[in-house]
Amino acid sequence: MDVELVEIRDFLAEYAPFSLLDAAALNALPRRLAVRYLRRGSAFPPVNENQRCLYAVRQGAIELRTDDGRLTGMLSEGDIFDQDCCAAAEHAIATERSVGTAIEDTLLYLLPCETLQALRRENPALDDYFVRSVAERLRHGRHALGNGPSERTSLMTLTVSDFVRRAPVGAESSLPICEAARIMSREGVSALLIVDSGALCGIVTDRDLRTRCLAQHLAPNEPLARIMSTEVACIGPESAAFEALMLMTRKGIHHLPVVDASGIHGLVSATDLLRWQSTDTVFLVGLIGKSPDVESLMRASAELPELQLQMQGHGATPGQVGQAVASVNDAITCRLIELALQELGPAPVAFTWLACGSQGRHEQTVHSDQDNALILDDAFDDALHGHYFSALAERVNDGLDACGYRYCPGKVMASNPLWRQPQRAWIAIFRGWIGHTDARAAMLAANFLDLRTVYGDTALLMPLHEAIKQAYSKSEVFLANMVANALKNKPPLGFFRNFTLIADGEHADSFDIKRGGLIPVTDIARILALSNGQARIGTLARLREAAGTPVLSAESAHELEEAFEYFGNLRLQHQAEQIRRGQAPDNYLSPAALTSLERSNLKEAFAVVERMQKILSQRYPDRPA
Amino acid sequence: MLLECVERCFGHDFRRRRLLARAPAGPLRDYLATPFPAPDAPSRETAYLALDLETTGADPARNEIVSFGWVCMDGERIDLGSARHYIVRLRGAVSDASAVIHGITDDQCQTGCHLESALAELLATLAGRVMIAHRAETERGFVGHACEAIYGGRILIPTVDTLRIAIRAKARQNRPLQRGDLRLSALRQKYRLPRYRAHNALSDALSTAELFLAQQTESVETTLLKNWLTFR
C-alpha cells in the first residue's frame, strides 16, 4: 500500500514521542489524527472540542498560562500538549494545569486520548514514554545520549573493598626479617602489614627486603622495625578504587592498607588495580607528579580536554568524569605546592591547601575557575610567617592559572589574605556567617561548605567542620539565607522554537546548563544536607543521604538525582563536541542543537528542579528577598 | 439580496428532489436521496468533504480523471481517518504533459482502480455533505460528466469553492489581483499554513480543507453555510 499523508507522517516522525514508533506504526499514525486550525487569539484547547485529545502543533504558536496568569510554557512546531491525556498518577510531578491562547494562527494535529491509549497498547516504546516516571524517563534519556553508565565496571564505580581479596597478612615489628620473609613467601604476598597491639604502625614490601636489608648487608635476624616504612598512607574500604590508584601514583607507592574505624581490612596493590584497567588519568597524574617545572605542568594539563573526551566516549558518568578531572586538578595543585616548597624551603607552620566549590565536590569539568583556600596552623604569626605563605599561595595560584585554571573572578583563592587564615580565624569566619547571615555570607558559605583537603594535614580541616556543624544546626536564619541564595538560579521554563524560555516570558538564544540546571540542584542538595546535619560533600551523595528523611522523599531524591545526571551528561556531550571542534569547552547550550527528545527531557528535568525550589521556598517563607 | 439567496438555497434542495425522481437506482440515486446540509445551519457545524481530482486535461467530455483524493471535515475538524486516495485505471493514455504535472505514469494508471468503484465510494461519502474544492469547476465538471456516463443521470453538489472565497475577499478589500495570488499554495501561505512538498490529489484535498478552515476564521461572528456556498 502506498504511504498516504506522507508529509504528516514525516513531520510527526521528527518529534518525541512519535519518533519512538516503528515504521509501520508511523505509517498508520496520520489516519488516526484530526486537524484543526486556530486563529490568533483563540483559546487552546479549542472550546468546541468535545473529545479529550493530545495536541501536536504543526504550525503556529501557543502560550500556556496558569489560572492566575503566570506563563508556564509555550508551544510551537512539533511541540506536544498531552495534559488532557495523562492521568495525574502517571506524572510524578504534580504539574499545574494550564490553559492557552494561540498567539499565532495555528494548525493543530489532534490525537484523541482513547486512540492514544490504543496506540500505547500496540507500541511498548510509546507506552514506556508515558508510563515511566520522570526519573526513569531521564535515566532512559541519558542512555540515549550515548554516555550512560558503562557496561564494563570501571575503577570509577568499583570501591576499594572490591579489591580486598583476603584477610590482611600482618606481623609485629619485633619479628626478625627472615621470619617475615618466610611468612610472605608462604602467603604469596608482596607486602606485609606491621601491626603492634592491634594498631597499624608500618608496612614492609618486597622492595624493602631488597633495598633496606640485602643491599645494606643488614642481618636477617634484625627486627622488621629497622626496614619498615612508618609513614603509611591508608585508604577507606568505601573509597573509589580509582582514588586508591591516584593516591598510590601520587605517592609513588604500590601498596595501600585498607583501614577504617573498625580496623584493618586488608591491602590493595597497584598491580591489582592496573590489571583491571589501565587509565590515561593515572598516566596523566603520574606525569604531573614528575613534572619538574610549571612549563611541563602546563603541557600535561593541556591533555585534560582530550582525557575528558575519551572518558565521555567510553561512557563514563558525569560523576566519574568529575572524579578524574578533580584528580588531575588536585595533582597539579599538589605538584605546584611541592615545587613552591622546593623553592621557598619547608613551611614554618603546618598548613592545609583546600579546594572548594565544584573542585571540592569533585564535580568540575575540564578547566574551571579556581576556588581554593589555605588553613594555617594556629601557631601562625603574621609578622613571622605572613610573607612565606603569601609567596606560596601566589606561586600556586599563578601556576594554576598558567595551567588553564583561571583566577577566580570573586577572588576566592589562597593568594587573597581573606582566604588564607589560621584555623581559629576560619572558625570565627564560619561562626560569623552563621550567626549574622546576609546574602553575601550565604553565597560564600555555600562555596565554603564544599571544602576538601587537597594537600597537607586533614586534621586542620576537621575542627572547622565540627564548628560549622554545631553552629548551623541552631540557625534557621542561616538556612533561610542559604535558601534565598539557592533560589537565585532558576531553571528555564522550557524552549520555544530555537529560544530558551525564561520565567518572565523573555527569550534567550542559549542557556547556561550550569546556572540553570546543575547549580540549582547542587544548592538544593547542600541545603537538605545542612538541615539534616549531614556532612557529605558531593551533590549525589547528599541527595542519597537525604532521601527518605523528612526533608526529602525518596521519590523526589531520585528525580533530582536523575535531573542532575541528565544535565551533567548533556554538558559532557556538549563539551565533547566543542573539544572535537577545537573550541574551549563551556556551559552554554543552544536549543537549536538539541533533539526533540533532549528538549522534552530537559523540560522535565527543569520542572523537577523548579518544583523542589518551590517546596524549599514554601518551607522558608521568612527568607530574605 | 438576502431574499434572493434564500430562494436560491431552497431552489437547491428543490432541484435535488427533482433529480432524485428521475435518477436510476444505484449510487447516484442513493446520493440524491440524502438531504443537503441546511443552508441556514452554522457553517462551523456543517459536514464537508474536500475533494481534489487530477485529470488528463481541462475538458470533462474529452479528458479523464487520473486520481481522486478526498478527506471529510465535520464542523471545524478534519478527520484524517476518512482520507482516501485512488488512482484510476485509464481508458486512454496519459498525455506526457499531465504525467509530468501529476507525477503519475501510464504504469501506475494501469494498476489503478476502476472509475466506477472510486465514484461510487465518493458519492456514498459525499451524501449529506458539502463539497469543498479549489476552483470547483473541475471537480463538478468531471464528477458530473462521470455520473452521466456511468449512471445516466445528472448530479447536483452543494459546493464551497475556496478560490471564489478568495476572489470575494480580494474584491471586498478593493485589492488588485496579482498573478499567482489565487493559487492554493499562495493562499495557504497567507494563512501561515504549512507548505506541503508532495502534490497529489489527497494532499491537495487536505490543503483545500485546511485553507477553508482558515478562511472561515476570518469572520468573527458565526456564519451560515449559505454565506459560503457557490451557485452556478
Index terms:
heterodimer, A: 625 residues, alpha+beta, Jelly Rolls, CBS-domain, Beta Polymerase, domain 2, four-stranded antiparallel β-sheet, 46% helix, 15% strand, elongated, B: 232 residues, alpha/beta, Nucleotidyltransferase, domain 5, 9 helices
Describe the fold and architecture:
The complex is a heterodimer of chains A (625) and B (232). Chain A contains 23 helices and 22 strands. With 625 residues, chain A is an alpha+beta fold. Chain A has 4 domains: 126 residues, Jelly Rolls; 117 residues, CBS-domain (Roll); 162 residues, Beta Polymerase, domain 2 (2-Layer Sandwich), CATH 3.30.460.10; 144 residues, Four Helix Bundle (Hemerythrin (Met), subunit A) (Up-down Bundle), CATH 1.20.120. In chain A, helix 12 packs antiparallel against helix 13 and helix 22 packs across helix 23. Chain A is elongated, with a radius of gyration of 29 Å. Chain A starts with 5 loop residues before the first helix and ends in a 6-residue tail after the last helix. About 2% of the residues of chain A have low confidence. Chain B is α/β, with parallel strands linked by helices and 232 residues long. The longest helix of chain B is centred in the N-terminal third of the chain and has 21 residues. At the A-B interface, helix 1 and strand 1 of A face strand 3 and helix 9 of B.
